[in-house]
Amino acid sequence: MDLLRVLIAILLPPLGVFLQVGIGKHFWINILLTLLGYIPGIVHAVYIIAKK
Q: How confident is the model at residue 52 (pLDDT cuts 50, 70, 90)?
Protein backbone atom coordinates (compact mmCIF):
# COMPACT_ATOMS: atom_id res chain seq x y z
CA MET A 1 0.00 0.00 0.00
CA ASP A 2 2.87 2.40 0.71
CA LEU A 3 4.22 1.90 -2.81
CA LEU A 4 0.85 2.91 -4.22
CA ARG A 5 0.80 6.00 -1.97
CA VAL A 6 4.29 6.98 -3.14
CA LEU A 7 3.23 6.66 -6.79
CA ILE A 8 0.15 8.78 -6.09
CA ALA A 9 2.35 11.29 -4.23
CA ILE A 10 4.56 11.65 -7.29
CA LEU A 11 1.57 12.28 -9.57
CA LEU A 12 -0.59 14.32 -7.15
CA PRO A 13 1.33 15.21 -3.98
CA PRO A 14 -1.64 16.56 -1.95
CA LEU A 15 -3.64 13.39 -2.64
CA GLY A 16 -0.79 11.23 -1.35
CA VAL A 17 -0.63 13.25 1.87
CA PHE A 18 -4.41 13.18 2.21
CA LEU A 19 -4.45 9.38 1.95
CA GLN A 20 -1.78 9.17 4.66
CA VAL A 21 -2.88 11.75 7.24
CA GLY A 22 -6.23 13.15 6.11
CA ILE A 23 -7.05 16.85 6.12
CA GLY A 24 -4.72 18.40 8.63
CA LYS A 25 -1.77 20.72 8.82
CA HIS A 26 0.47 18.49 6.67
CA PHE A 27 -2.16 18.42 3.93
CA TRP A 28 -2.36 22.24 3.81
CA ILE A 29 1.43 22.59 3.97
CA ASN A 30 1.67 20.22 1.01
CA ILE A 31 -0.91 22.19 -0.98
CA LEU A 32 1.14 25.35 -0.37
CA LEU A 33 4.41 23.65 -1.33
CA THR A 34 2.85 22.19 -4.46
CA LEU A 35 1.57 25.61 -5.50
CA LEU A 36 5.02 27.13 -4.93
CA GLY A 37 6.72 24.36 -6.88
CA TYR A 38 5.84 20.85 -7.88
CA ILE A 39 9.11 19.28 -6.67
CA PRO A 40 8.87 20.59 -3.06
CA GLY A 41 5.35 19.16 -2.90
CA ILE A 42 6.58 15.76 -4.04
CA VAL A 43 9.47 15.76 -1.56
CA HIS A 44 7.17 16.68 1.32
CA ALA A 45 4.58 14.06 0.33
CA VAL A 46 7.13 11.27 0.06
CA TYR A 47 8.64 12.34 3.40
CA ILE A 48 5.24 12.22 5.12
CA ILE A 49 4.51 8.77 3.67
CA ALA A 50 7.98 7.39 4.52
CA LYS A 51 7.85 8.82 8.05
CA LYS A 52 5.02 6.43 8.95
A: confident
